[in-house]
Batch of 2 targets.
Target 1
Amino acid sequence: MNQPFPISELGASAVDVDIRNIGLSYGTNHVLKGITLHIRPGEFFAFLGPSGCGKTTLLRLIAGFNEADGGEVLIGGQDVSHLPPWKRDVGMVFQSYALWPHMTVRRNVSFGLEERKVPRAEVDRRVAAALELVGLAHLADRRPSQLSGGQQQRVAVARTIAIEPKVLLLDEPLSNLDAKMRVQVRRELRDLQQRLGLTTIFVTHDQEEANTICDRIAVMNDGVVQQVGTPMELYEKPANLFVANFLGTANILPGRVVREGGQRFFDIDGGVRVPIPAHVVVPEGAKLVFRPQHASLTRGGAGDVLLPGTIVHSEFLGSTLRYVVRIGAAEVSIDTPFHSGETLHQTGSAVEVSLSLRSVLWLAI
Amino acid sequence: MAGATTAGRAHVPSASSRHFLRLSATPGQIALALGIIVFLALFLIVPVGTVIYVAFTEKGTGEFTLVNFLDFARTDLFIRSFWNSVYVSAMSVVVASVFALPLAYITTRFEFRGAMLIQTLGFLPLIMPPFVGAVAMLLLFGRNGTVNLLLDEWFGIKIPFMEGLNGVIFVQAVHYFPFILINLSAALRNIDRSMEEAAQNLGSSGFRLFRRIVFPLAMPGYIAGASLVFVKVFDDLATPLLLNVKDMLAPQAYLRVTSIGIADPMGYVISVVLICMSVLAMWISARAMRGKDYATVQRGGGGLAKRRMRPWESVLAYAAVLLILLLVLAPHIGLLLLSFATIWSFSPLPDAFTLAHYGRVFGESFVYVKNTLLYASIAGLIDVVLGTAIAYLVLRTKLIGREWLDWAATAALAIPGVVLGIGYLRTFYGVQLPDGTPLATLWITIVLALAIRRLPYALRACYAALQQISVSLEEAAENLGATKVRTVRRVVLPLMAGGILAGFVTSFATAAVELSATLMLVQSNADAPLAYGLYVFMQSAAGRGPGAALGVIAVLLVAVCTFASHMIIEKSQKAKGAGR
């Protein structure tokens, strides 16, 4: 796998993908609603969302398997909206890998080059290089059914990059692998993408997968892009409650904003009042949102507020302790680091939750 | 097929017109569908429609009338024929069940050596025309046949196996029992072990367990096989004719058209009655099956528990199986003996043996073999081409009304061969080629009739093959640059190959021994297929030796072709590994 891949010029010619106001519906079922996204050249980009959010539909639309009701898809500046799949030059790795069982690994990989009428010698060279790149050169004459899941996945990738596509599309490529393989393969995918500098779009419902390998993520729900950003941006500054909840655990406390003598307060439903820092913008109907690790059961520093509550559950997770605490009408999760010799708080015991107001988010929707 | 979706970039369709584009298909697909429609209309819908039209119109004036049906109801011969046909069909189902039930039960429920062999031998009767077996059965079971001669000598009794309708029932039951065996065995194998274990766990065992659990679960499979047997027997023409039984419906239709003439309406009325009975039997079968797709085998499960037999059970089972196998293979055994016999009359076995019949057949009658190979191959080819095309259009395109192609092709199942034959004669006799020969006299008409008759079977095989291919395999090919046509060629067809070949073999093997439609359509000996030659030979006492030799050749021919293709399919499956 150390050999330089002969199509290294790809990186220089990486293209962008411009999705403009794409809509798609089946009858009255609106699957995609006005999607607009710009994916930069050479970027590893993820469509992240729960099943049924439209992420796979959007990916298949870029590949040409779905036709939009309106809007355009531009790849490297060229409008491909009305091109059939075989003229688009976007390589797709299918969730099921879709390796042809009647062909050997070598024939699978050479297929796309043969369809492009590439001269035989060139085909052989590029097939060998692609298989070398994924470390499967020694299995070229096997049938797909004789390979393990991870090997099949690599053949699917080799088959796709052999045609030197403008864009690489990955449709949940890790979902058919076991947990250990998944971690290994996602690192390999990231390495490969970095080396080729290939614009790549990755569809997943797993936030950890998206976070670990992608440059930027578009979080989708219900056919709408909720937010676009780097994994850290999305985690630190979610645009709405859906994104906050979908990326990591979020505690959400409903309540209402009240004013008293020029000072704003947030009355959490069920009784407790929290002061709102002066410079913070709080939208209409906002809820108080914080991550489990931004609160603790030990008294914190200045600027922290104390919320009285009752322990509902306590779980030992190894490096951390997780408590579920009832505050007013809501339940929140709180993670504290585990120190040797520490004992768990008993269920039902009264505690004070110390919350750092600097890390609190105010989200309305 | 390519090109339709490559609308130019200057073309900016409105949302509604693009919506239409998505529902529709490429010009190539539309052309393909139109071609299939024209073929089915010309060779299935129009001929059958003509038959129905003639039955309901007054001769000469062409006005609508029911008087032909009144005539049918007032004629004793027809009413008697109708009830005879119903009786023979029903009794054939009963006798065939007697053969099939023990074989199916013993081979699926017990550890039984040779179970595979029995299931394979069970298929054998299907690859010989039933009327060919009829002659051999006469020699073995007739009034002066082997069995009765021996019975008379030992016990002084004779059993009328082959007298009148008994003979038809016996021959048909022996010939068609595999349909019940195959369906019932499959149904029994599909019952999950846990079904039985759950019943045992709740306190049921023995016969009660069989009656309350196993039997109801296997019932849909049995009904499917039984209704098929009923339809086949009801439609069969040559067996009663050869056994000299004329007062049944299908023979009556044939005799009216051939002896009184193509203009006589009664042949058409009988045809309509035959169609109605077919549809009725299939409807009953479909109703019995509805909502009862009891494939209960679960992951890791493996059919009913097979029990080891006790010694006395074992003896009993082997004896029963052996007896049944002897019975159902009697036509083959008899035919083989007859083909080598010098004279075989009023004696348990032939007087002496000779190869002369084979010599004669190879000398004179090889044209039949050649014709059969030609006709059955072309018919099989037409069937798999149409079957693959219809399956592709139905499963892989969004063509509006594509299901109708499937339904129309499958409707051929309900059309008896004799009806199709009459329809072809009536429809195509008037159509003349430039030189004046009627279209109906050309041998290609026979091929087309065979193709239409066998299309439903080939279609199901192709359909199943395509259904097993994941759509993503095709999308992957398109994604890597293959057009629709290229994708079909490089991915779809190679993966369907096994199913297509299986469809071809089914069409070929059954078309090779088919007679009911061809009997009507054969105009000269030079154009006749094997089954027709057999029929001609078997009608005279002197022709039986050569006829039997020809029959043996037919059976071997079909058996070899079936076996060869079976091997090819096995090999290609193995080459694909565990893949789809």
Note: The interface with chain A takes residues 2, 5-9, 11, 15, 18-19, 21-22, 470, 472-473, 475-483, 486, 490-491, 494-495, 575-580 of chain B (CB under 8 Å).
Target 2
Amino acid sequence: MASIAGTKAEDAKISWTSYFSGGAIGPFIGLIALCTFLAFTSDTFLTLRNFLNVMDQITVIGVMAIGMTLVILLGGIDLSVGSVLALSGMVLGYLGNYLGWPFGLGIVAALVVSALCGVVSGLMITKLNMPAFIATLAMMSIARGIASIITDGQQIVGFPDWFSSLAIIRHFGLLSATVAAMVVLTIVFFVFLKYRPAGRALYAIGGNPEVARLAGIHVERATLLVYTVCALLAGLAGVILSARLDSAQPSSGIGYELDTIAAVVIGGASLSGGVGGIGGTVVGVLIIGFLRNGLNLLHVSPFVQQVIIGVVIALAVAADTLRARHR
Amino acid sequence: MAEQPNHSDVVLSVRGLGKKYGPITVLTDVGFDVRRGEVLALLGENGAGKSTVSAIIAGLVRPTAGTMTWMGKPHAPLSPADALSAGVGLIHQEMRLLPDLSIAENVFVGRLPTRQGRIDRASINRRAEEQLRRLGLDVAPTTLVRDLKVAAQQQVEIAKALTLNARLLIFDEPTAALGGEETDLLFRRIEQLKAEGVSFIYISHRLDEIARIADRIAVLRDGQLVATHETAQIPVKVLVEEMVGRPLDRMFPTLDEAPGEVLLEVENISSPDGTFKDVSFSVRQGEVLGIAGIVGAGRTELVRAIAGADPISSGVVKIQGKPIGLHHPSDALDEGIVLVPEDRKGQGLILPQTIAENIAQTNYEQIAPSGWINPRNVNHFARSAISRFGIKGQAEQRVSQLSGGNQQKVVIAKCISRNPRVVILDEPTRGIDVGARAAIYDVVADLARRGMAVIVVSSDLDEVLGLAHRVMVLSRGINRGILERRDANRLAVMELATT
């Protein structure tokens, strides 16, 4: 078989392109097409100001989508992220504004509470063998309920200036602290999934958990950890949202779990697990972000926007399954 | 057994059959006859075109050339339903039944008779029961398929075809999942149906079965018909050479005679659910231990436990005299024990991933000793494994696209690249064609030569006898004896296996 050896140049090309695309080439082309279309139809779309606005708008979904990518890679799903986001904001607001805790400590506590939600979901899935859909559906209701109980459904308004400014002040005229956090986390998890054996183990578990177990991977431990990280990131998204809005309310983040799942799926991940990646998810988040932004710029009504986003989800996944069938 | 051939007896005749997928030719000019009430065995290596031929006859695939005549009329089924209504049924290797429906519902699925707009359950139960009784299956037609054993599920498939008045049944590896007794039962049914005038096309890798059940043999190689035999009493060597296309000097490699120090000791281990009890044995460096026994004897469960995949309730496993704790497969891997599992697709491979990813998964300590993966090293590692094990495929190819033999080599490659001390192979050649088999036997002998302790579990007696220095025989979870190579023969093994 002469073809196996190949030339050095060929080998390098094959390995690098396939390793990084991870199924995200199609969505990426879609993103470019979308941006090109918007650049021609709206004169404000292609400005730095607008771009930075979009970055601000996608921070919350972007951070949550990282965790959701890990969960979906495992072949799982997490419906509780929207509720955990709300709970995180309410814990932060309650500890800071009602109990007078130092705000930094409040942030830590909010993240710990969020992570605990993930631990509970993870234990329900690994120890009680509950389907992830059901376990996180339960957690979605529980977290939302606790978020409402804290202030009996009242919102909490007015946080310290340094905190709100995290989402407002753009350092070097470009990045706010919150956007920077999203960018850093994205890079960290991208590198983790690509270049660390533990990251590749998630692909193995999603591809076939029994094969992964026989390969010496601790599947239960990894699953528990992934749901914890996903909830932790949802909690962080709650902190970010509180900073952006300078308030926290028990009803925030309703439906965010679906936006997050949509972004991950548009990015080429498979709900049956083992396929996807941060690269694709970034593209998915950007598609949703630019689409919303562009449709606003074009004065399309929010109701029509919903329809369009639904169509985009369907098209993205249909394109993917058609491609899979051709292989 | 077969009557004098008579051309008026021909029920199916296939002439000049060809199939191309785009530029790839998988079948060229295949022609043969099937006569009334006979079993025609279709032999060939994996990829020889057997499944394509049967898929065309059963209406799953349409040919690109050739004609078929069925009961004197042109036969060009557009769908499996088409073929079935003409009387041609295909029984798949893997059952295609709905586990949560009853036997009767499965038999009549897609054509449930109704009375006054409601499903006529009395009628389907009665008619299903008739067929079940005809097949000697003593279960209620209302039993859920999930509650049946694999062999009984196969009978349901047959019953389904029979209620459609099938006159030709195509069996694709029907005994792959059956034990010896179940195979006997299946063969009795086939004989009985033959007497009723039903014809069979029978595909199997087990040549000893062919001699028992077939009347005539057709051999395919690389999509072409290379031989037809008017009798099934053909020496195995001849058939194998026809399938492989070259003379086979030897199937099994020679083994080095003198194994070294005792490496693996298993002392009195039992499983929590009693599938194996109080089993003890040891394996030396450079030794191949065969484990024989009938299906259900507890062989797979035993080796899975040694590999840390299933729990042990009592007893110890020692490596070089040192007891090891086995709580998770990673514990066994850390001690250098690897398992090449029985079920390639379910336990050995991640099908949507590439060869490189599959091989890398268990070998990141070597590929990325720093903890950081360089994709180029992943591919490099995979390519060296591909050439070492003679895998026909490329690093970037998905394992789902490979043949069974090559998939098995990938599983072996991924396990062996760790340089283990103990290698356990469970049914290493199940469903693999003859040529690839010999290659796998060579790998096994090579592992022993390098000083590893090798355990081979197999239902194929020739394989165990040909490969192993010693053979341990299990039956009903108990070690019935370990035979030295010079004492090990079919009879001795079967005597112990049936105690």
Note: The longest strand of chain A covers residues 156-157.
